[in-house]
UniProtKB/TrEMBL annotation:
Family under the similarity heading: Belongs to the ku80 family.
Protein name: ATP-dependent DNA helicase II subunit 2
Pfam (any one): Ku_N
Domain of life: Eukaryota
Reactions that this protein is recorded to catalyse: ATP + H2O = ADP + phosphate + H(+)
Record organism: Drosophila arizonae (Fruit fly)
Length: 701
């Protein structure tokens, strides 16, 4: 079986003359690499070489004491584990000195790769993290080491802290350069020149720390993968296909299901309680089962029997119009491209004819997919035709289709009506908010040095997932802090300081975003005007009244709306007219129109400087009784909340206590109130926030 694992040797500069910032970033970079390989469950081998140690201990130095001095080699290559990460933190703190050659570090790394050849790794890689500073270096074996790296197909990645990128004037491709400073002396320029020549001499990748992780994680799979399957259409047609992953969204983290910790005990609870009395059943009265949520389900042995496996491949269901499938129904983490099986002329002809027919009819194929006998879960997929070109044959794109049980429907309120149009200030505020949240700035001048290889706002191939980053940091924290005082660790986690560090937005970006958001809120007010809504509703009811049916009426009604002078008499008279309507639908519509008028009248009476509490009591009580009669519980509940809000805003304490609370004019309850209804009413009658204290109010009364 082919292997896709790699052997990575990391060479670090720990000399005393190296910048402290550089050494800290180097250790952080190596720890990120190890954590990524741990959580992604990769079977890669890793080891380390330190350049600039007082102790000289490596394979080449033991053979000849005059070469590769001040180079300390770690043990043989190992698989990445949390123990290896802890040992690396100890290893990197070895006693350092000012001497050390980076070419010696590369030579030792090559020797370690030779020792790891029995592991049969598909890739051999060296990561050199070095500060090419002012210290002199020997380059006698420079060409020899470059030839070794080139001829043995070793991938070399060189990272340093003062590297930037510009676009090559001839190729328009990103080119790594060293940032020039006035403090650079002859030796530093010489070191940087030899580091740059590694790119042309042995195909090395020179990158900054921001791009180092992306370069290490960017691995080309040397095992070509295809999914051999057959498309079955009816009982006669069968087309041999090969599926190739055209696009895939995958996470590096692989989660493993475990029952619990090694020292965790799982016990079966046999006791239960009936009305507070503990009951312990006899062993013969118990049956096997399991809990589905809070429901006990008896165990059925027939459930363990696996159903017969489906035949692998694509099974035809039918042809459907492409326009009949909304794009929102497509799902899945990958996009497969299906081509005819290599060397199968018959399948190529059938697939070409099928694709041309589908394109002509604007149709797609609906079918169900069985990946293999082992992974035998059916999936509904859609095969979308792609016309053949001069450089590619006819193909089908396979996209997974979600089914009804996977959908959750959400109702969102409309943010604007069709009549609303944004002005220039509002559009500019939206643009400013978007620009204020950019993590990087675009460089218009491509010859200006930049930190990233690509010149864009967000290099999506270079930014790690924040979810993966936080998971790895949390795991590292737990491993390192495992032997520490648990009480101190728990106290730190309770303070949430640990989580805040990894979710915190840079302060300049946060401050700029807050200012832009505040400006946006001023230009887009989202406050509800309940009075305007009530007037609009009443106006609509007035312009679109229900068709009147001639009925015999004993009393002649002379008014058509509720007035402010005699609202109680007007409402009773119009309510009598509504009750006389025989058509239930029209009667409810007329009541809603009348109720909207009454709510406008009540709001108008509450807006007066001097309130007539007796009149308000009669009007609200009459409206509440009519809502109970016509089953308008929801409308009155919303109206009651509006009353509470208005009483709080205008500081109407006397109205709230003597009318609403004392007369119990709160939300309606149908039948005997339940515990939930009582709690809701208690929360409603709880007095709102008033400017004057209750003691002052009671003294006034």
């Amino acid at each position: 079986m082919a292997s896709n694992k790699e052997c990575l040797i990391i060479v670090l500069d720990v000399r005393n003359c190296a910048a402290e910032e550089f050494k800290l970033k180097s250790v952080k970079c190596v720890s990120e690499i190890i954590k990524d390989k741990i959580v992604s469950d990769k079977k890669d081998y890793v080891s380390f070489v330190l350049v600039g140690c007082e102790e000289s201990n490596n394979e080449l130095y033991e053979a000849n004491n005059r070469v590769c001095q001040n180079v300390l080699q770690y043990e043989n290559t190992q698989l990445c584990t949390w123990q290896l990460l802890l040992r690396f933190f100890k290893f990197v703190n070895a006693t350092a000195c000012d001497e050390g050659e980076w070419l010696d570090g590369l030579d030792v790394a090559i020797a370690m790769l030779h020792s790891a050849q029995p592991l049969k790794c598909a890739r051999q890689r060296i990561l050199l993290l070095y500060d090419f500073n002012f210290m002199t270096q020997r380059y006698d074996d420079y060409d020899k080491i470059c030839n070794k790296i080139l001829h043995e197909n070793i991938e070399l990645i060189v990272g340093s802290h003062n590297i930037a990128y510009i676009d090559n004037a001839e190729t328009n491709q990103p080119q790594a350069i060293f940032q020039f400073t006035r403090k650079s002396n002859i030796h530093e320029l010489e070191n940087q020149k030899h580091a740059l020549q590694l790119v042309s001499n042995c195909n090395a990748v020179l990158c900054s720390f921001k791009e180092t992780l992306a370069s290490v994680f960017k691995v080309s799979n040397r095992r070509p993968w295809v999914w051999n399957a057959k498309l079955h259409i009816g009982s006669q047609i069968s087309i041999s296909l090969q599926g190739i992953i055209a696009m895939k969204n995958e996470s590096h983290i692989k989660l493993k299901k475990v029952w619990g910790e090694h020292d965790e005990l799982v016990e079966r609870e046999e006791r239960f309680f009936i009305k507070g009395t503990e009951v312990t059943p006899l062993p013969e009265d118990l049956i096997d089962g399991y809990m589905l949520g809070g429901t006990p389900v008896p165990y059925d042995e027939t459930l363990v029997e696996l159903p017969p496996a489906h035949a692998p491949g694509l099974h035809f269901v039918g042809f459907v119009k492409h326009s009949s499938i909304p794009d929102a129904y497509f799902c899945g983490d990958s996009l497969y491209m299906l081509v005819h099986q290599k060397g199968n002329t018959s399948s190529a002809q059938k697939l070409d004819a099928l694709v041309r027919a589908l394109i002509a009819q604007k149709c797609v194929i609906l079918c169900w997919k069985i990946f293999s006998v082992k992974f035998n879960t059916p999936r509904i997929v859609v095969l979308i035709p792609q016309e053949s070109k001069d450089d590619s044959p006819a193909t089908l794109y396979m996209q997974e289709l979600s089914y009804h049980a996977q959908h959750q429907f959400w109702d969102f309120p409309s943010l604007r009506t069709e009549k609303t149009e944004c002005n220039k200030d509002q559009l500019k505020a939206v643009d400013n908010l978007i620009d204020s949240m950019d993590l990087e700035c675009t460089l218009k001048d491509t010859q200006q040095p930049r930190q990233r290889r690509k010149n864009d706002l967000l290099p999506f191939d270079g930014l790690p997932s924040i979810f993966e980053q936080n998971v790895m940091d949390v795991l590292e924290y737990k491993v390192i802090s495992k032997k520490k005082d648990e009480e101190l660790s728990d106290e730190m986690l309770k303070q949430r300081n640990f989580v805040d560090v990894f979710w915190r937005v840079p302060e300049p970006i946060e401050e700029k975003s807050k200012q832009a958001a505040a400006a946006l809120k001023k230009l887009f007010p989202l406050e509800h005007s309940y009075a305007w809504l009530e007037k609009l509703k009443a106006k609509e009811q007035e312009h679109n009244p229900a068709p009147a049916i001639k009925q015999e009426s004993e009393d002649t009604i002379t008014i058509d709306s509720v007035g402010l002078m005699t609202p109680v008499q007007d409402y009773k008279q119009l309510l009598q007219k509504v009750r006389s309507e025989l058509n239930t639908t029209k009667r409810d519509a007329q009541f809603q129109s009348l109720a909207a008028q009454m709510r406008v009248v009540i709001n108008t009476l509450l807006d007066r400087n001097k309130l007539d509490l007796n009149q308000l009591n009669e009007v609200i009580k009459l409206y509440r009784d009519s809502c109970f009669e016509f089953n308008s519980f929801a409308e009155y509940y919303q109206f009651a909340n509006q009353l509470k809000t208005k009483a709080s805003e205008r500081n109407l304490q006397e109205f709230w206590h003597s009318i609403v609370v004392e007369k119990q004019l709160g939300p309606l309850v149908l039948g005997e109130p339940t515990l939930e209804d009582e709690l809701r009413l208690k929360a409603f009658y709880t007095k709102p926030e008033f400017e004057v204290d209750d003691a002052e109010f009671q003294s006034d009364i």
